[in-house]
Design goal:
The chain is α+β, with helices and mostly antiparallel strands. The chain is built from six helices and 14 strands. The radius of gyration is 22 Å and the shape is globular.
Length: 328
């Protein structure tokens, strides 16, 4: 992991040196001959390509997926799913080999437009976050865990779901964020230590919405924050993935599956019942209570143990295709 971290740092330094040389050459006397100015950029491209192609050895094998609870409730649609390709986002960088993006897709009546605004060629260039049903949706802990990183100070920017806005994101904003580091790519975020060398990443969280801080312990199903539109993203959505370390710069991706849902494919919608999510938390508390009292009635103990099994079936995949759009 140290080598990967060092290469990520060198990658960003090369880009920053290139930008500095260009600015000096434009505003004052060039420090180097014109051709040599591009050497740091070329080196950065080589390092970036190497890192993006270098993933976990198990990426093309049969590594078993880690089963966790879904991080949301309601009706959602999947984008950039590892069910369709690995690496799902076209790169192994930031430990996102098996990452998935999900957007809220609430049901609408017959003849009504979709609740989620579609991608437009030119107008409107950008939309406010409240126009998207995912914005502000609760995020739930996928397992009992310890919070290792929690940050929610970055702003939620306007959407980038038009051609001009997407071009700006891809050519300018995304490049700048990449040079500034993983924190600016994933935006506001929470990283949970699930134990046994597995960490869960929630990216693009809403500014000021976090209910937890580093060092806190959380229970499966507990609300930890809300969906936002911070970082390198086109619209409010959740970017979720598992990795083998707490630092996205050094970690490698770990495959996952959501209990009762699996791994939805691109455009596939799935529904998670909010009532059952609450039941799952209550069930875990019931089990703890049973274990703490040796004299508890045997029937109560059996019911408490069975409750998590019922909660494990709380996800439903309805198989209806969603609208696939860009989400970082």
């Amino acid at each position: 992991m140290f080598v990967r971290k060092a290469m990520m740092v060198l990658y960003r330094v090369c880009w920053l040196v290139f930008v500095a040389l260009v600015l000096v050459g434009v505003l004052a006397e060039p420090l180097l001959p014109f051709g040599l100015t591009f050497v740091p950029a070329a080196l950065a491209v080589v390092i970036g390509f190497t890192l993006s192609r270098s993933g976990p050895k198990e990426a093309l094998g049969d590594r078993p997926a880690v089963e966790v609870d879904p991080p949301v409730t309601g009706r959602w649609s999947a984008l950039n799913s590892p069910a369709d390709k690995v690496p799902s986002h076209g790169t192994h960088v930031y430990g996102q080999t098996y990452a998935i993006d999900i957007v809220a897709e609430p049901e609408t009546g017959d003849g009504e437009p979709p609740a989620r605004p579609p991608f437009r060629l030119f107008w409107p260039v950008a939309r406010r976050n409240r126009d998207f049903p995912a914005f502000g949706a609760p995020l739930l802990a996928v397992a009992d865990a310890t919070v290792v990183r929690a940050s929610d100070g970055q702003r939620d920017h306007l959407s980038r779901n038009s051609l001009p806005a997407l071009a700006y994101l891809m050519l300018i904003e995304g490049a700048v964020r990449d040079m500034l580091g993983a924190r600016r790519i994933i935006g506001n975020h929470v990283i949970l230590d699930l134990g046994e060398g597995t960490y869960a990443v929630y990216a693009h969280v809403q500014r000021g919405s976090l209910e937890v801080k580093a060092g806190d312990t959380v229970r499966a199903g507990q609300e930890i924050g809300r969906v936002g539109n911070s970082g390198n993203t086109t619209e409010p959505h959740l970017h979720f993935h598992l990795m083998d370390g707490p630092d996205p710069d050094a970690a490698r991706g770990v495959p996952f599956t959501w209990r009762g849902v699996g791994v939805p494919a691109n455009g596939e919608t799935f529904t998670v019942d909010a009532v059952d999510a609450v039941d799952a938390v209550d069930a875990v508390d019931a089990v703890d209570a049973v274990e703490a009292k040796d004299t508890v009635d045997e029937v109560v103990a059996v019911d408490a143990v069975k409750a998590p099994d019922r909660a494990g079936e709380r996800g439903v995949r309805d198989g209806r295709p969603g609208v696939v759009g860009g989400a970082g």
